[in-house]
Please model this.
Amino acid sequence: MNQFRNKKRRSLSLIASIFFCVVLVIACYSERDQETMAVDLSSEPLQPQEQAATPQDSTDSEPVEVAADMTAVTDDTLDRNLAEILAVKDGSFIGYHPVNESFLLWFRKQYGEAALAQIAEEATHGMNPEIWYDLTGRSIHVLWLDYQEMIGLRMDDENRTTYSRAASDEEIILSFTGDISFDDTVGTVQYLKQNGLDATITPEVQQILRESDITMVNNECVYSTGGTPIEGKAYTFRANPQNIHYLTDLGVDIAGIANNHVCDFGLDALVDTIETFENADMPYVGAGRNLEEAKRPWYFVINGRKIAIVAATQIERTYNYTKEATETSPGVLKTLDPTKFVDVIAQAKRQSDIVIVFVHWGTEGNAHFGGDQVALANAFEAAGADAIIGGHTHCLQGISYINDTPVIYSLGNFWLGTTPNDGIVKRDTAVAQLIIDRQGAIRMRFLPCIQENLMTYLETDPQEKQRIITYEQYISQGIQIDVDGYVSKN
Model:
């Protein structure tokens, strides 16, 4: 995956984009006297839930009345609608994008005069940015991407954006796991290579991961054949780069690499790891060849929403085995001092509908989340985090809410070995799910799992399942978990 662009190509692209914008404006104005204002749903890349200009067909929101006969619309009406939208001072209504007349004329051509009039009405009265999604099935952020594609403008984040469609038009399901490692020297991976994936992560768990619309794991190892273990560090994990295919086999869509093991074999091995992810077309967040790369989110455009995922590590807090990226050197994005990461979250929020924070923090072996984690979580939520998923402690930690933002402080180990002689161990773990409905509201689900005998499985025994749920509630604050794992605030 090439992350860099040739400056000359970028300049030519910009010139071409300006040319297309001028042509679009001229074309749209020339059609004013002959347009029938009918909605055009045939042009690419607009592929929402095929409701673009017919919000009255929506079953999950109040219908928006759109006049059927707009043939009498005058130039004065169009000019007024454009002026009312362009006069908006609240950047959130237009997604902080440089919305101009060219964009609005494109929007009118795609969705009709009636939709544009509804946007203008909201711009002068309600100022709710959800109006864009309600009318088109696409948020303002996704509409802006559509517009950029139409005029041929390519942004820096295009190589860090995944376009997909959820299994259901009604919701988007994201699944998250704790630590996973494919270090060839440890017992879990040796067992995997002897017995296959089904013998180590059961088909029931694999099905959950593969059928989720987005699946993310904490990747707790380096992918390299080079480097040497960091002197003085008790545990270091290095996997053969070929082992990355196991992530694909599991249905993983993105990996967090902001953790305290991604530098285990030095910075050259970290760069090898990054290149391994890129060569495998596997998205990653939280580390880079420099600070700019380490800070960059990964975006998913799915069901008309734009979701940003960002990652950082608080660890280590006392040692310095894991190097922080600088302007000129590789490393991770750190959040012991949250200033940089808070800015990353805030910037991602301006450019996205939903921001998921994936953070490595806490004290190993401590099931009770600490005041330092709570302070960071509050800072993340204030910056715009819509959900926070934590890890590092090698055990489950509790769940809480900060306003409407769910926080699970640690998912512990998902499938992790540490020595060549890994034997019979039993650890509680879980798959955490975020379920985003059509209105953008988020529910959390907690699916109890166990790693035992080198295998991770979904707990289905009613008593054992309830034991894990009861324990998770005990170490949490202000939440309830029902028998199906759905989490709610008290």
Notes: The radius of gyration is 24 Å. Residues 1-72 have pLDDT under 50 and may be disordered. The chain is about 30% helix and 20% strand.
